[in-house]
Give the backbone structure.
Amino acid sequence: MNSTTLIIITLFCVFPLVLGELRLGFYSLSCPRAEAIVRDVVQRRFNTDKSITAALLRMHFHDCFVRGCDASLLLDPTENRTSEKDAGLNQSVRGFDIIDEAKSALEQACPSTVSCADIISLATRDAVALAGGPSYNVGTGRRDGLVSDPREVKLPLPSMSVFEALHFFTARGFTLFEMVTLVGGGHSLGSTHCSNFRSRLSSFRGSLDPTMDPNMDAELGKVCGSAKQPATSDPSVYLDQITPLAFDNRFFNQILAKRGILNLDQQLALDPLSSHMVSGFAADGESLLQSFASAMIKMSSINVTLGNEGEIRRNCRAITILIIITFCCVFPLVFANLRLGFYGVSCPKAEAIVRDVVQRHFNKDRSITAALLRMHFHDCFVRGCDASLLIDPTRNRSSEKDAVPNRTVRGYDIIDDAKSILERACPETVSCADIISLATRDAVALAGGPSYNVPTGRRDGLVSNPREVRLPSPTLSVSEAMQSFGAKGFSLMEMVTLVGGGHSVGVAHCSMFRERLSSFRGGSVDPTMDPNLDARLVELCGSSNRPATNDPTVFLDLNTPFAFDNRFYNQILERRGILHFDQQLAMDESSRDMVSRFATDGDILFQNFANAMIKLSAVNVWLDNEGEIRRNCRAFN
């Protein structure tokens, strides 16, 4: 059996679920030359600078060990937002230009298709092979992350002991053997600055470090200077002094000879936990190649963003999706607590489970989008997005479901269905509040609306009181409704966005608007309503003398009632708004221009609606140890 075959078999045996998510040949149809394009760029760069292998290995490690392999390290800071590049440990990371070059070529060949996260993994794989290291296969299909926070950058330090460093590796699912493999293999090509090890030198400590070869101490003293006269510009030295640009096992032989430069490297050869592993690799280079390939495949799958999560950036240095930029700027504190991919470890398939349930229900009943939007709004606008609306009343206790505005809310069965499956997959892990937000997001996308990312981590509330339910009435004026929205932190633009977007797929009962009809107002047509619409609604709703039985419903968007689009805004500009409040949005001086803009530009509506929905889903959320995770969404634990 050759080494490449062994590497792939090991991968299937050790972590098949990860490989089941990522896929070999993911771009074979969407971008057939993707891997060849990356390989060509890396080959061209390697021909002029063989040190790129170390640079890419370091970039890959620093990216994957923070939020996972999501290319969050590539994002540039801006005037208003810091990024992982600002963290001290990342300020000497290089190789970004290689990723940029590959991305540019890929965008020309297959626009908005290949993720920056995949480019890092592929480029690193190719650079390792070019340096004489193992050739291994990398599953692809990663998506690019939407968060880059320097405060999250916590990496193993070169001054650590084996035991201290192992805490970082085991937290990400690695064994001690894999840590020795990755550190030693990576450092067979790397370099380091004097500032990372000069505390070990006799010229800085006044005595020889007993774990360092005296000849090497003297060599390094010449490069780094002394405590009294340190070298200027913080020089760098190769970690492997024999074959610094070749991937081989010489590094392991060096540290056995007490010629490890970094404290952690030398401790790998001295600590009883790891010394025998170092000796094994020093004696068997083939074993190192196989083990390094397996460990690199595993590292490239840490907390990857998949499916519809994240995005495919057009520029690896900047987030493409406008909604995330706006979101960070408008309410960064909420975003800092809620988190994209919150269940990435505790319940990796959580979002997929919710999405499957919503898809199944949508296939049978496309009106669920309106139902879930209404449920989400009615829940978040009372105590915050805490799933308090889901609680059933009992003989001894009423709940928000008893409040008049909530008696026609529906869609509870969808939440129950999702919760039941999630409890089997990940008991007491995913909150009902998160299920509402995720299900609404998925239903909006299925109806043709914007796809947007929902941070998760909400907890379920412990109170459900019908007396607290005070929601904007459909009979309000724009200024009156704005008081309710303003109290929750929303602007007039966000109100126009949420109401119009939501009502593009909604329905209303005759009782909500019949006072506008000529048959209920003494025969005179409401001057703000198109007479033809009045006649049509009279047929449905009856008259004050003979109202229709069982309070019929009518679509608020008369043209495309099941599709999320901007037709609703065109309707209300033509005086075909059914609810008084909807019509007033098109007539009030404060909101009329916004309605006109959305009526002519559906893309602007999509961007603004996504922003507003993310903001709505973060209203007064319960976090961390607050509230609870209900086992049954209809009852407190």
User: Anything to note?
Assistant: The first strand starts at residue 191 and ends at 193. The chain has 27 helices and four strands. The two ends are 56 Å apart (CA to CA).
